[in-house]
Design goal:
With 376 residues, this protein is an all-beta fold. Helices cover 0% and strands 44% of the residues. It has a single domain (12-35, 42-367), classed as 6 Propeller (Neuraminidase), CATH 2.120.10.30. A five-stranded antiparallel sheet has the order 3-28-27-26-25, with no helix packed on it. A hairpin with a 4-residue loop joins strand 10 and strand 11 (142-146). The protein is globular.
Length: 376
């Protein structure tokens, strides 16, 4: 079943946070004004009002003298995705999926250049334990690795004798195994990155949407879970004993909910005890005082060293879109509000305390008082 979701952009007044059980219990109201990031925009008065504390526990993560920065914006960039930090080169790489390129922002000189063109309509990116870039490619329906000399090695493109749908995002375990999701969104695009007009006749998905693991020793692809509608962004807990995965299946399935799920990692190779970790539903109050529960999507997610999940969020509007932060129990404790849909996040910078955020046509960053649990 398909589901067309009409999500309106309106000016909202934030009026809620969440508990682990209902995820939509009102706590307090914070005015959320859209910010102008364009040339000549007024400076931000500290503390940044678009870094929203929903629970006192989030106060320790918000720096009083750190503002959200827009590092890059281009009208030619269509859909920025898959940010990944390279600590050796001190650069951030990300994908512009429809334009079939990867871009690079260099910390040393604050410059953005084209990093890889073409890029196989790549989506999520990460780096393995040896510093080699891993990319999830829509065009080839593959997970690929770029070697030190720049050559490309396909790590996975089939399972059970059938093509993968379109790998979306990947993370690397300390044992070298690569875990990735395959929801199939790229399969509704043609080879030039445009949406196929008649999607009803498009052969997607090729197989049940699922989460996979590539064994670093054998190269074999294992399916580790498929009890999820459309697995999207994923990340490990700090101790690698849990795997969190965003489910965006509500884009296509009526029975799906906008949630983040969590599994226990069994013996470093499998998943068990899957359950809902957090709901993306949030009560919002408009300028007229009308309260309505809205649920957008979590896309890319990352974990900090304290076990909090930083989830990109979007498709609702002002007061919602940006980043939602959940504590280890699944309660929403804070937000970073952006004027665009946020597709993905990663921690980077010299101290791994800078959160990078890919918006629709922009790259944002903010310093926070924590560090990413892992290097990418």
């Amino acid at each position: 079943m398909t589901k067309q979701q009409g999500m309106n952009r309106r000016n909202f007044v934030l009026a809620a946070t969440a508990t682990a059980s209902t995820m939509a219990v009102s706590m307090k109201r914070v005015t959320a004004e859209p910010r102008n990031y364009g040339p000549g925009a007024p400076p931000v008065r500290y503390p940044d009002p678009n870094i929203v504390v929903l629970d006192d526990s989030f106060k320790s993560y918000k720096l009083g003298n750190a503002a959200i920065m827009r590092l890059y914006h281009s009208k030619r960039m269509i859909w920025a995705e898959g940010p990944a930090w390279n600590g050796v080169g001190r650069y951030l790489v990300w994908s512009d999926i429809p334009n079939n390129v990867q871009l690079r922002w260099t910390e040393e000189n604050d410059q953005v250049t084209t990093f890889r063109n073409p890029a196989q309509n790549s989506n999520g990116n990460t780096f393995d334990n040896h510093g080699r870039q891993i990319s999830c490619e829509h065009l080839t329906r593959s997970v690929a690795r770029y070697e030190y000399d720049g050559t490309r090695t396909v790590l996975a493109n089939k399972y059970g004798g059938k093509s993968l749908n379109a790998p979306n995002d990947a993370v690397v375990h300390p044992n070298g195994d690569i875990w990735f999701t395959d929801p199939g969104y790229g399969a509704v695009m043609d080879y030039e990155g445009r949406l196929v007009e008649n999607q009803d006749n498009w052969p997607q998905p090729y197989q049940k949407e699922a989460i996979y693991r590539i064994d670093s020793k054998t190269g074999k692809v294992h399916q580790v879970a498929d009890e999820i509608f459309k697995p999207n962004g994923l990340c490990f807990s700090p101790d690698y004993k849990k795997l969190y995965v965003a489910d965006t299946g509500a884009s296509h399935y009526d029975e799906a909910k906008e949630v983040i799920k969590v599994w226990d990692v069994a013996e470093e190779t499998d998943l068990k005890n899957g359950k809902v970790y957090a709901s993306m539903a949030l009560e919002l109050t408009d300028a007229d005082g009308n309260v309505e529960e809205k649920a957008g999507f979590a896309d890319g997610i990352r974990c900090d060293r304290d076990g909090n999940i930083w989830a990109s969020a979007g498709w609702v509007g002002d007061g919602y879109d940006g980043v939602h932060i959940f504590n280890p129990e699944g309660a929403r404790i804070g937000q970073i509000l952006l004027p665009e849909i946020c597709s993905n996040v990663c921690f980077g910078g010299k101290k791994r305390n800078r959160l990078f955020m890919t918006g629709s046509q922009s790259l944002y960053a903010v310093y926070v008082n924590t560090k990413g649990a892992h290097f990418c």
